[in-house]
Protein: Permease
Amino acid sequence: MKHRNAYIISGIGALVLFVAFVMYNSAPVPLWNWIKLSDLLTIVGGLMFIVPFYQLSVRVKTREHAPNPWVWQVLPVVGMVLMIIGLLIPNDFVSFGAVALCDVLYFLGCVGMLMIFVYPLHTVNDEMLEDDVESRTGNGR
Structure:
């Protein structure tokens, strides 16, 4: 049941992200100074989408004693924070030629959150297989 709730929350987060994506093409709705409603929806939807996966990942990796816990516990959280900062600062705040600081922070945030899914590689596959076996045998209820 815990996994089902996590997937429902992630699904709602994906819908919120979709709404935010659609709003990027419309006229901006400013909330405070340079922060727009689409930015806020992106942050909320993104966190709703990724946090349940992070929690499941930590639970599985802790159970399996995955090496280097700082990689799969700390880096994703740092990635989430970097993405939020990247979304909140204006595009013209600091620029490195063709690349803005917000884009660099957003990219580094994505790389940090990849550790949820790719470190260590076999762990996520084992979790997916376990869920599939449990759902097929009826033991997951």
